[in-house]
Amino acid sequence: MKASKVCRIGLQPKVHTRGTCKAIPRSGACISQCRPYSSYNHFVSKLEPTVNESLPESSLEHAFTLAVKDNIATTDVPTQCASNILASHKSPYEATIVRQLRRRGARVVGKTNMDEFGMGSHSTHSAHGAVRNPLSSGEPRSAGGSSGGSAVAVKLGDAQVALGTDTGGSIRLPAAYTGTVGYKPSYGMLSRHGVVPYANSLDTVGLLAQDVQSIQRLVIETGLAEEHDPNDPTSLPPKTRQRCKRATASLPTAPERLTIGIPLEYNIEELDPSIRQVWQLASSVLGEQGIRIVPVSLPSTKEALCAYYVLAPAEASSNLAKYDGVRYGARGQGGDKEGETLYSETRGAGFGAEVQRRILLGTYTLSSEAIDNYFIQAQKVRRLVQRDFDRVFKVANPLYEPQHFDLSDMDASTPLEDKRGPAQVDFLLCPTAPTFPPTLRELEDQNAVDTYVNDVFTVPASLAGLPAISVPVPVQGSQLPAGLQLIGQFWDDRRLLEVANMVQRWLKA
């Protein structure tokens, strides 16, 4: 196939602070002067995990250690989003997802490092410093972002499961770079109440683990996927959950009854040849197991990345407007000059360079002179991306009416199944990231656009709100694994996890 070009958990836990500070500023921030826990800098605070004896015996039998990303609220340690503006911030309540997992036996071991407010692809934009990939034997490499600390905690065995958030690939990309499993559920499935928002229409809470089975047990077998949270306006209502569940309940998972699609547009020029080879090899292995492999066309994929980097910053600029040192956030040290905005010093000193960049970008795209040419057009592209996914999946999206397939839009090289159009599929298989993790030195020489390209394969599923999971695959002759991504139809999470579990077993053999 021809490569295409892409547009650019217990009571009174023992708390270990991130380090010792030489001095504590008036704002309470002790971020930059603290000594990291390890050479990988993946924790920002640690807890001595304790067992909650009030839990039922069934939960105690399945107790597991849990690391929590630093933008998910906890009451026993601060929630800082890796930002100076929230330094030492203590949440008055705990995120729903943390409480739900505690009831299932979770013992929280600490909060993990991340890109500030989730804005980044390499966990380098953090007031705590960059997270480093434990797979690197020489120069330190990227651990992926923004949930890099969570991925490293799982890889090193510091936690059996880690919570992350995925806005455009922030769980799947770190999973691919660290050789772990990263799962982003269908939008609205897991509660976001208590998660500091980045982009509300895209933010999704997900899980990282060493294997798919651990995630499968937590999400499906314990009924986590069926819990509606009335405190989260984006949590799917109970009636809608039941309707979506009925739509996917009887679908097959036997390999000989599955069809997996290979998106032609995902074969981009920037794709590393070794990752392309692993992708092709994995397709062959799945075919040998009885799964039918077919090419599919997702023509709007080429514009998905551009649309995402208009929509996400726009929502971020709105969400972060409240961090002014008056309503939220630590006040800056300097006083505001006469005639200046009250909170100019606070925002300038509190936000890092990448957050400032995205706020400015988002503010511009929402301005009266630019909203029509950028934000509105990006919303239209988002609908096209969702339409492309809906028409290639066998199962109809339970939230929408089925749409007709316009043959004139698809790639000319896509073979037709019959006169009605090309073959439809159960899942899509593609790489998670186009390259292996770059070194931190290489990242210093990259501009913002070069960095954003790392999200090219993860962003489309985020725009459409679809479930996706990254599974690690060994690469012959390399110490670094590749991540392969499976994408499913909306609310087809149960089957997605079952198939991903099989794929992980087959590709390990």
TrEMBL record:
Cross-referenced Pfam families: Amidase (PF01425)
Top enzyme category: ligase
Gene Ontology terms describing biological process: glutaminyl-tRNAGln biosynthesis via transamidation; mitochondrial translation
Highest rank taxon of the organism: Eukaryota
GO CC annotations, alphabetized: glutamyl-tRNA(Gln) amidotransferase complex; mitochondrion
Catalytic reaction equation(s): L-glutamyl-tRNA(Gln) + L-glutamine + ATP + H2O = L-glutaminyl-tRNA(Gln) + L-glutamate + ADP + phosphate + H(+)
UniProt-recorded Gene Ontology molecular function terms: ATP binding; glutaminyl-tRNA synthase (glutamine-hydrolyzing) activity
Occurrences of domain Amidase (ranges): 66-497
Compartments where found: Mitochondrion
Keywords: ATP-binding, Ligase, Mitochondrion, Nucleotide-binding, Protein biosynthesis
SUPFAM superfamilies the UniProt entry points to: Amidase signature (AS) enzymes
Record: active site: K69 (charge relay system), S146 (charge relay system), S170 (acyl-ester intermediate)
Location of the region described as Disordered in the Swiss-Prot/TrEMBL record: 116-150
Gene3D superfamilies reported in the protein's UniProt record: Amidase signature (AS) domain
Primary role: Allows the formation of correctly charged Gln-tRNA(Gln) through the transamidation of misacylated Glu-tRNA(Gln) in the mitochondria. The reaction takes place in the presence of glutamine and ATP through an activated gamma-phospho-Glu-tRNA(Gln).
Subunit structure: Subunit of the heterotrimeric GatCAB amidotransferase (AdT) complex, composed of A, B and C subunits.
HAMAP family in UniProt: GatA
Similarity annotation: Belongs to the amidase family. GatA subfamily.
Name recorded for this polypeptide: Glutamyl-tRNA(Gln) amidotransferase subunit A, mitochondrial
